[in-house]
Every structure is written in C-alpha cells, then in structure tokens.
Amino acid sequence: MRAEVADLHRGLTRMWTPDAEAFAHLGRVYAEEGPWREVHEKVAPGLADYQRAAMEDYAHHVLAEKGER
Q1: 26 pLDDT exceeds 60?
Q2: Left if phi > 0, otherwise alpha if psi is -120 to 50, otherwise beta: which for 34?
Q3: pLDDT tens-digit readout, 38-58
C-alpha cells in the first residue's frame, strides 16, 4: 500500500508539497463525515478509513523520517 500512497503524495506535489503533518491531516479529512468520505465510500465501503490509516502511516514512517515535518 505504501507504493500507492507514495503515488498519491507524488501527484499532490504537482500542486502543493504537503509535509508529514499536512499529509496525515489530509487523510483524516478524507475520513471525516462529508463529501470526501462519500466519494471514497462509493468506491468501496471502508475505503475512507483505510486511506486515512495508510496516509498516516506514510506520513509518520516515510515523510517524517525524511525530515518533512
């Protein structure tokens, strides 16, 4: 899953380069009640929470280790 999340992070850097904290926060936004959660849940039930966890993992174990805090 980290490869897919790395692709997501790389894609975001075309517009904005989120540090570890911002990337983890974005994952939490995807899982909060609202339009982003609805989009993820339409793709697959549970995807929003899975995406949040994967983005937090990537933020803490990859971005933070690179010093992108």
Answers
A1: yes
A2: left
A3: 999 999 999 999 999 999 999
Q: Which residues contact 50 (CB under 8 A, 6 or more apart)?
A: none
* Percent helix, percent strand, percent coil in the chain, to nearest 5: 70, 0, 30
Which pLDDT band, with edges at 50, 70 and 90, does 67 fall under?
confident
- Cα dihedral 19, 14, 39, 61, rounded to 10, equals -30
Distance, CA of 31 to CA of 25 (rounded, Å): 10
